[in-house]
């Protein structure tokens, strides 16, 4: 390959290849050059924002050099690549991560201090890249980190939402959504104006005969929107591999501006096409696990799948390999059903554009995709109406019908006596209007389907995909328990703890092999280690207390028990159970004698998370938490014993402050509803204990850390159906302490009772679908056990340290190796030293 460039040019090029900075001085030379020339600022107007920009650009330059080398190596070796398609990538901030992975943070700290800046202040200037809702999006970000760190040739593909999801403001106790202008300054992306894809919508399908007399379908007419690539380099830790995250932005294919219209006085409509096209990548639909049939969302999904598939196919075609090699060269992972359109799209490309016959094409398609399911909530499984499909993507609808026909014929051959099964497994739901069941299409078009924790992977096989297990056999279904990247969630979030661990384990190898943490068990009884571990927790609580004071003006006692629940607000995650528990505690405190009060450990209940804008019940929960906070935090009888905090606009960078500061975190979903949960892992690895139900990854966490080190409560998944039944048929009585909580709400203790009546009635009169009442007594009892356990600080500490030592399993590196082996069949490409 090198030979393609003549010698003198090669020599010139090599001579001028930029040299990455090594020392503090060289770093400063780069940073100052960027501040002065790229930003056009000077010493006299360089604020922290500009210093951040200079630092980020200096690190970006380093990243890009490795990014180029990695991409070239991946192209030249031409081994199998993984493409991770996700509508969400919740990346958070990039600078600290880049510094860690490149390994030059110390140099930059020194350099910045010479220029008069503190690293913490510089890091906090960065705007979070919040292209996601919650766990699913953050999982995708952890996976990118692991894939790069393990040297897998892997790309992410997503959408570049101009306004992110939304920024949450709490005004008078209510959530208010405002746009998130995260792109105001973003040094971490490269606009690839040369990489664009035309994506078609609407139109109609015509049939023709080609020269060989073969019938061909041609999708004609409609409208074209252009996808433009924006590349985000993803550096691995402890390696020079830098992978790529390609995000698509939308633009009008006709150009930005219609001069003819402008000249004839139609000023506004001259930019209308552009605005309409740009809407496609304007915002991420907040997920409330309720699929609303929004045309724009289907448009987004297809736009992103079509652009990504075009790019992947183009890259494959450059190798000039035969089509049958495609699945050996390309693995595409579907992160939930959102990218399912990629399946009919690849089939369409192969048959309509590349001229393969149906079976040959389908054999390629169905070997290429893997599908990860993240929820069993039936209302969350995506469906799109057939008429909408017909209108927006007429050719794809035909293809889906053909996929379905072939599939149903196959089922019929294998299960000739079972007529019902055809109806049940059909991709098309015979409703009015008919619906396309995306999850079924994803199962049928993929060679592996995985759940994200053991219980969840079992549940998908016995509930939503039961028939498919019968049809395909159990081997098509597998489990990969979620994980988190220890680089961000231990080292970056909790540098002192990471340092303490490194001092005992002889270095930072555990950040690459988290199972090494088990060696910490040897220090469980080590006095000095314990002392330091405890001091670190305290310091992290002081840091959070300061943040609370600065943002909300509320003083909290850092010695109090910090009880945290931060995640999307959803009824199944049961923040309502938590706040009802808080009210129960408040009522109990009000009734306590001074002696009793002395015995109680002070508590700070901390909530955070966004509610989908249209999810009224979730918003009511936010409002209730804030109202309770207002009353409790100002009640002199209560003082320090209880504080209730709602942290506004929860995101990744806030999670990095919150996770290390918790004593207890809450993972209290109705059993069987939380597929995995990943913040449970983040809290435990930072030395916090958890209160949780037997759900998702809580079960495997318990298995790893031991049941003495976790506070489990509540009904089991297997009991849920019967309990729900008992609510419906009135054979059930409301828990009395919950009734007391409701009385206090209804008597107006926390403001206008009417605002909370739907929340209360949902439990009292409307079946209590999430079984709050059934678990309430057990929840409160367990909270008392926690109070008691916290009084014995020594034992608490033993539990916390033991748990950290046993969390080695939950690294996303372990997940990625499992995906690579069981699903993708890919090997790492380790960068050669001399490069
Ligand atoms: C091309 C080149 C690579 C180069 C990348 C960067 O790859 O050497 O690093 O572009 O965009 F071949 P494809 O995107 O065409 O695979
Ligand atoms: C979803 C599921 C979680 C799971 C993540 C990642 O996340 O149980 O841990 O995906 O697999 F619900 P949320 O968007 O609900 O946080």
From TrEMBL:
Its cofactor is pyridoxal 5'-phosphate. It catalyses: [(1->4)-alpha-D-glucosyl](n) + phosphate = [(1->4)-alpha-D-glucosyl](n-1) + alpha-D-glucose 1-phosphate. Its EC number is 2.4.1.1. It comes from the Eukaryota. Keywords: Allosteric enzyme, Carbohydrate metabolism, Glycosyltransferase, Pyridoxal phosphate, Transferase. The modification N6-(pyridoxal phosphate)lysine is found at residue 682. GO terms for molecular function: glycogen phosphorylase activity; pyridoxal phosphate binding. SUPFAM superfamilies: UDP-Glycosyltransferase/glycogen phosphorylase (SSF53756). Transmembrane segments: none annotated. It is an enzyme of class 2 (transferase). One of its GO terms (biological process) is glycogen catabolic process. One of its GO terms (cellular component) is cytoplasm. It holds the Pfam family Phosphorylase. Belongs to the glycogen phosphorylase family. Allosteric enzyme that catalyzes the rate-limiting step in glycogen catabolism, the phosphorolytic cleavage of glycogen to produce glucose-1-phosphate, and plays a central role in maintaining cellular and organismal glucose homeostasis. This is Alpha-1,4 glucan phosphorylase.
């Amino acid at each position: 390959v090198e030979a393609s460039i003549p010698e003198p040019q090669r020599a010139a090029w090599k001579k001028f290849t930029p040299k990455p900075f090594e020392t503090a001085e060289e770093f400063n030379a780069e940073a100052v050059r960027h501040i002065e020339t790229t930003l056009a600022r000077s010493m006299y107007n360089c604020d922290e924002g500009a210093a951040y920009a200079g630092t980020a650009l200096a690190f970006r330059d380093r990243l890009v050099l490795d990014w180029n080398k990695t991409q070239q190596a991946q192209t030249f070796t031409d081994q199998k690549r993984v493409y991770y398609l996700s509508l969400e990538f919740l990346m958070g901030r990039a600078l600290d991560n880049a510094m860690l992975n490149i390994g030059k943070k110390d140099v930059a700290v020194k350099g910045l201090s010479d220029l008069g800046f503190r690293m913490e202040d510089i890091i906090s200037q960065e705007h979070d890249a919040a292209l996601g809702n919650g766990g699913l999006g953050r999982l995708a970000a952890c996976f990118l980190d692991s894939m790069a760190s393990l040297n897998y040739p892997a790309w992410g593909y997503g959408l570049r939402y101009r306004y992110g999801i939304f920024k949450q403001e709490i005004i008078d106790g209510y959530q208010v959504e405002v746009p998130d202008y995260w792109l105001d300054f973003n040094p971490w992306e490269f606009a690839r104006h040369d990489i664009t894809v035309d994506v078609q919508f609407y139109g109609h399908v015509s049939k023709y005969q080609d020269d060989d007399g073969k019938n061909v379908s041609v999708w004609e007419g409609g409208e074209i929107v252009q996808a433009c690539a924006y590349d985000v380099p993803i550096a691995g830790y402890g390696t020079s591999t830098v992978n790529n995250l390609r995000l698509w932005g939308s633009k009008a294919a006709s150009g930005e501006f219609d001069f003819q219209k402008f000249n004839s006085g139609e000023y506004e409509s001259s930019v209308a096409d552009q605005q309409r096209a740009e809407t496609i990548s304007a915002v991420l639909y907040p997920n409330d696990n309720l699929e609303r049939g929004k045309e724009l969302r289907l448009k987004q999904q297809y736009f992103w799948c079509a652009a990504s598939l075009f790019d992947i196919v183009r890259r494959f075609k450059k190798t000039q390999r035969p089509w049958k090699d495609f699945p050996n060269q390309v693995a595409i992972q579907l992160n939930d059903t959102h990218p399912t359109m990629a399946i009919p799209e690849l089939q369409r490309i192969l048959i309509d554009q590349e001229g393969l016959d149906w079976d040959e094409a389908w054999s390629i398609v169905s070997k290429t995709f893997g599908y990860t399911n993240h929820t069993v909530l039936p209302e969350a499984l995506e469906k799109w109406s057939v008429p909408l499909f017909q209108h927006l993507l007429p050719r794809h609808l035909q293809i889906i019908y053909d996929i379905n026909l072939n599939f149903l014929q196959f089922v019929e051959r294998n299960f000739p006596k079972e007529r019902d099964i055809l109806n049940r497994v059909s991709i098309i739901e015979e409703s009015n209007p008919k619906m396309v069941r995306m999850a079924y299409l994803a199962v049928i078009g993929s060679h592996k389907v995985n759940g994200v924790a053991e219980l969840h992977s079992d549940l998908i096989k016995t509930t939503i995909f039961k028939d498919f297990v019968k049809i395909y056999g159990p081997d098509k279904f597998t489990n990969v328990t979620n994980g988190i990247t220890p680089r961000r969630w231990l080292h970056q979030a909790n540098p002192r703890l990471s340092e303490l661990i490194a001092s005992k384990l002889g270095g930072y190898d555990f950040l690459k092999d988290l199972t090494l943490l088990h060696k910490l068990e040897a220090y469980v009884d080590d006095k000095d280690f314990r002392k330091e571990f405890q001091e670190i927790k305290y310091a992290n609580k002081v840091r959070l207390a300061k943040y609370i004071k600065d943002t909300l003006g509320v003083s909290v006692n850092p010695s109090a028990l910090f009880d945290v629940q931060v995640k999307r607000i959803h009824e199944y995650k049961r923040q309502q159970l938590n706040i009802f528990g808080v009210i129960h505690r408040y009522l109990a405190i009000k009734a306590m004698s001074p002696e009793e009060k002395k015995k109680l450990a002070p508590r700070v209940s901390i909530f955070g998370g966004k509610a989908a804008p249209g999810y009224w019940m979730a918003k009511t929960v936010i409002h209730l938490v804030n109202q309770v906070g207002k009353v409790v935090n100002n009640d002199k009888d209560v003082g320090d014993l209880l504080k209730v905090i709602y942290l506004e606009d929860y995101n990744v960078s806030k999670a990095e402050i919150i996770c290390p500061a918790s004593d207890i975190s809450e993972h209290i979903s109705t059993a069987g509803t939380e597929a995995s949960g990943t913040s449970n892992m983040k809290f435990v690895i930072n030395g916090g204990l958890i209160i949780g139900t037997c759900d998702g990854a809580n079960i495997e966490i318990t298995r790893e850390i031991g049941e003495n080190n976790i506070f489990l409560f509540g009904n089991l998944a297997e009991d849920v159906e019967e309990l729900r039944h008992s609510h419906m048929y009135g054979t059930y009585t409301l828990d009395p302490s919950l009734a007391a909580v409701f009385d206090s709400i209804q008597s107006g203790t926390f403001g206008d009772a009417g605002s909370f009546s739907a929340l209360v009635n949902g439990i009292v009169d409307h079946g209590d679908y999430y079984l709050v009442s059934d678990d309430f007594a057990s929840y409160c009892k367990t909270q008392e056990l926690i109070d008691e356990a916290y009084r014995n600080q020594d034992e608490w500490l033993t539990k916390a340290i033991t748990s950290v030592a046993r969390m080695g399993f939950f690294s996303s590196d372990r997940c990625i190796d499992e995906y690579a082996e069981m699903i993708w069949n890919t090997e790492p490409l380790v960068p050669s030293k001399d490069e």
